[in-house]
Amino acid sequence: MAKTKSPKKPFFTYRAIIEPDEGNTFHAYIPALPGCHTWGSSVPEARKHLREAALLYIGSLIEHKEHVPQEEGFEFVETFSADEVKTF
């Protein structure tokens, strides 16, 4: 008996931004998912809440047969030494 392949399910990869917010909390959001924002009292908590929010957001789009946005941007971190920085 031959094995049948199940259809490959898509993955969704997004940039997640977590920034310090007022009151010693952290604001977390995904730029590609408008309105997908949350917060936490720590970075791990904000990350956990953001993952939950994103899964609900994407699930709702799929359930309502709406377009699921794809990540279009990118980010990187650049480090500059004090010797490289010039003052004018």
Summarize the structure.
The chain is an alpha+beta fold and 88 residues long.
Characterise the protein shown here.
This protein has 88 residues and is of the alpha+beta class. The protein has a domain at 17-63. It contains 1 helix and 3 strands; from the N terminus they run E-E-E-H. The chain has a 3-stranded antiparallel sheet with strand order 1-2-3, covered by helices on one side.
Name some characteristics of this structure:
single chain; about 90 residues; about 15% strand; extended
Provide a count of the helices.
1
Portion of residues in helices?
10-25%
Portion in strands = 15-25%
Summing up helix and strand content along with how strands pair, one would put the structural category as alpha+beta
- Indicate the overall shape: extended
Number of strands: 3
Task: Record the SSE blueprint.
Elements: E1 17-21, E2 25-29, E3 37-40, H1 43-63
Antiparallel strand pairs: 1-2, 2-3
